[in-house]
Amino acid sequence: MGKEPNISPASRVSDITPSLTLEITAKAKAMKADGLDVCSFSAGEPDFDTPPHIVKAAQQALDEGKTRYGPVAGEPRLRNAIAQQFNSKHQLPYSADNIIVTNGGKFSLFNLMQALINPGEEVIIPAPYWVSYPEMVKLAGGHPIIVYTNADQGYKITPSQLQHHITPKTKLFILNSPSNPTGAVYSQQELIPLAETVVNNNILVLSDEIYDNILYEEAEHISIASLNDEIFARTFISNGFAKSFAMTGWRVGYLAGDETIIQAMASIQSHSSSNVCTFAQYGAIAALEDSRSQQAIAQMQTAFSQRRKLILEALNTVPQLSSTIPYGAFYLFVDISQTGKTSLEFANDLLEQQQVATVPGIAFGDDSCIRLSYATDMTTLQKGLERITKFVQKL
Ligand SMILES: Cc1ncc(COP(=O)(O)O)c(C=O)c1O
Questions:
Q1: To test ligand 1's pocket by mutation, which of 103, 106, 221 has the most ligand atoms within 8 angstroms of CB?
Q2: 0.85 cut: is pTM over it?
Q3: Chain-wide mean pLDDT for the chain?
Q4: Which letter, b or e, does each residue of 348-385 get, where b requires 16 or more Cβ atoms within 10 Å of its Cβ?
Q5: Whose CA is nearest to atom 16 of ligand 1?
Q6: Could you say which of 3.30.9.10, 3.30.1360.70, 3.40.50.300, 3.90.1150.10 is the CATH number of the domain covering 13-49+294-394?
Q7: What pLDDT, in 10s, does the model give residues 212-230?
């Protein structure tokens, strides 16, 4: 008798939790495929098509035979355009050597952790956090140190909270503004003392700025790196084309920062993903260089603003639900604690009883909330909000 094959995942896999956001989206999709009328508030992506001039640029690249392996760190023209954008938008003196193009913003974050974190080093993550941060830290052998924030503080970490959690093992602090899942946007006044804390303790910051173009009312996106030279030298900026340009499936992201780490990341990339799809990078070049992109961003922004207004007004009429006002991204983080349900119970019951898909807050480290994405059309929003109201009234 032959032996049973010894197939079991490596121990690093058992330490991570699969993405709950993807899971519930899959369940909602399966219900839709079964013919059920599901209103999805769970999407983490704009529902718009990629602007046509970006699509055309990629098509042209294909026609021109840009179908081969390219430089591991990205097409030089794209790295240059990204550096230029940092110069003009935030006066950040990056050059192309400070930029690596990655497989989405996600791989820029993952790759940075691999390049930076030694086993046992600590990474400070304010909660609610984007689902993948803690798992990426763990996959790099580091320890995620979760710092809880609440609605009263606008879900923003304070300098004293940050200071309190810094130890000799702290390597990195992750800042995400505008935030997924809360929509919180840090002001310059809020960033200054956080930057001081980082510099005084000589730790590093990873600033995830993927929602930098999706802002409401007077909110402004300030990059922490732009505050002064000392914080600039300690900051890595992650960004990508997915959210700003409705390019989620293109998988083009990037990271900006110290050249030595960019080289280390390129080395990791050379043994893992290799270069990002060459013709997709030409779409990204058009996204940055073609002036029509600004109009496309503005149109999406207007649509998101209308939806945000609708969802905030509708939820205001449900006394058991409350939320902070989001000033960026396209999410609402809704406190459901008055319903007596955990976030998983709430999200599952809502999906099963009213066919509305949301994401349980526990996925973001906060079990008292659910996340609603308003990256969906007004009709679905209206219908879904009526169903949520009905669901809560029946409890
Ligand atoms: C906060 C945050 N960072 C990074 C990403 C990664 O985006 P992508 O890999 O699609 O560029 C996402 C996507 O949902 C996000 O919400």
A1: 106
A2: yes
A3: 95
A4: bebbeebbbbbbbbbbbbbbbbbbbbbbbeeebbebbb
A5: 180
A6: 3.90.1150.10
A7: 999 999 999 999 999 999 9
